[in-house]
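**Sequence, structure tokens**
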Amino acid sequence: MEYTQENKEKTVGESGFNITLRDVVELIIANWYWFAISVIVCVSAAYLYTRTLVPVYQRQAVMLVKTGGKTANSDISAMLELQGGVTGSGVENEMYILRSYQLVREVVNRLHLDVSYEEDGFFRNTSLFAESPVEVTFFDPYHSFVSMNVTPLDVKNYTISNLVVGGKKLSINGNHAYGDTLQTEAGRIIVNLKPENLSTYIGKPVLVKRMSPEAATAIYKGGISTSLAGKGTTMVQITCVGNNVSRADAILSALINVYNETIIEDKNRIAVNTAKFIDERIAVIGKELGDVEEELTDFKQRNRIIGTEGNGSQYLAESSRVKGETLQMETELSIAQSIKSYLMDVTRNNQLIPNVSGVGDASVQSQITAYNELMLQRNHLLAESGEKNPVVQAADKNLAEMRTVISGSMDNYIKNLRLRLDRTRAVEHQINTEIQAVPKQEKMALSIIRQQSIKEALYTFLLNKREENALQLAVTEANIRVVESPFGSNAPIAPHSTTFLLAALAVGLAIPLGIQVLLMLWNTSVRGRKDIEDYTTIPVLGEIPSRKEEVADNSIVVDEHKNDLISEAFRLLRSNINFVAKDARVIMFTSTMPGEGKSFVSRNLAVALAIAGKKVVLVDTDLRKRTQGKLVGVKHKEGLSTYLSGLHDNIDNILDKGLIHPAVDMLLVGPVPPNPSELLMSNRLEKLVDELKKKYDYIILDNVPAQVVADATIVNRVAELTLYVVRDGKLDRRYLPELERLHQEGKFKHLCIVLNDSHIEKKKYGYGYGYSYGYGYGYGDGYYSETNKKNKK
């Protein structure tokens, strides 16, 4: 063989079926219409789906929680942490309270969120709130789900249709006036008009739904979330997610207002309890002061005393100082004892402890303040969850312990006051002894006046405290400030239409691509020249393009006046034969299995050689099926079989001339012999070939498939070049390693492959690239024309 493939050093089975990027790109180009259809369908479906989704909006508000240094909350947290109780940040507590069920329920009640409004749309309903042209008020308690269509007719009348109460469809006929009370199965209702929104909705039904307040609270509570606006800050960001912007803004505003009112109510609760205690003490002290003043008046009248001045001014000055100290201590002792009595009263265990400034040291006042704050928190938790809540029980335990601690502190404080008071009274007794010369009446008067001064001081003190408490009660400002009113973008945060469309685009591309790749992987047939070159080292002499469906196996497609793709393929095959085996004159055609087109290729190659001026004879060596004879429709009693059997010696008598081309002779089979293999093994085959060589330039042997019977191997002994026809898409490429083995073992002389039915124009899956550039331009034969150029395009 004159032609060798030096670059092919790989062994059989070394190559595999790998999909490259170029394969994928060419697959997409070859099947672009399927990809286009898939993308259009998927993107259209995704677009329609996004049109059915209800848009979701997000609105936010920012609130500053003022903590201002050490507060009662910090004292409570510290005490609870020491005693093993519940601790937590004040801001975190407020964040929880803001989204608590109780606050959201109040918002639902204020905004009537248990009633919703929707505008009917083609793909989906649009939620309405401030945009609704009507407002429906239900007076009776909720007992079942209600839905109905309210259609505004004009500024005075409306109609109700499709009324459904508890799954039962009812009807209300006639027009109704706005503001009239209607008695329906859902109870009494009133429909009021919002004139500013009427023009858009005249004649359009508005879907009105009523649900239970509990269900509405659960729905809107799920759309509210809180978080810190920034690290290290006490600003709380409140977020509301819903399908209507105006409703989300209204919910945020109402939530802040309700929260503000709750804080003020908690603050005033302590002041109210303190005011009640002060009023009780003022009533008692006022009565005692009146009794003392009445006693002083009677004493002066009985003893006819006008003034209370004495003679010993020095003793009186000292006595006055001591009396002042005694007065102060007795006042503090009296209030301390009152608070102690209040603490000991078991009926007031769940009430706040009065916190009177100036009574007790700083630690006692801090403990009372911490106790009151914890009591308020306990009452909040009790209202939310009940007495069996572990947190409430822990708070009760902590409150009892704190009340015991405060009671002990008050005992210590009262004991200390009494010790000081005893010392002061001892000093006073000593001074009184030294002024025994003072008249008895004056001494008694001074005693009564002293009692009067004590009561007056205590009474004045309580009046001042009442005024201070009244001022605190009048304060309506909470410890919060709204930093940002409800704000946010009017663009929905969901659904993400772009994401849906991009995903649909990807799916639309992936579906046909996946199907095509699976078909590629499932298909094990030879698909182009690249498969042959990957699995074998056998030269590929040519590729015969696919024929049109109307071109039959007996057709001769090669013509000296044609420059189409298939004609050029046979001309290129003719040139490659001269290049690979220049001196080869006996060419044998075979294949793996029937139907691969060896007879078609052999006939047309014979015509191509004849067009080039060569004398060609086509010998049908398929003694079993007489393929060439059937194709030309000729059945002789004499032919190759009779010559090989010795019944005929004159070759010229059994040759047929001009059946497929004037310059091509054919030697057909003749009658089918009973022993074709034995005939082909006789030496008369060599004699036939030698005789034909004398008359013809090329002898083409159209043989049987090599893997069906042994005839191909038998005939190959006289061949000088073996053309193995492989049909694209028919032969299983798993057989190619076996074909390579036959080539390596030299079973066929000068074995070469002709790829038949090749999809050169499509170049699908990347196979065949680089091998069809010469088709249509007549390389080796000089054929070129404008018609050929159009065919190439």
About this structure: The CA atoms of residues 12 and 94 lie 77 Å apart. The first helix runs from residue 21 to 30. The two ends are 37 Å apart (CA to CA).
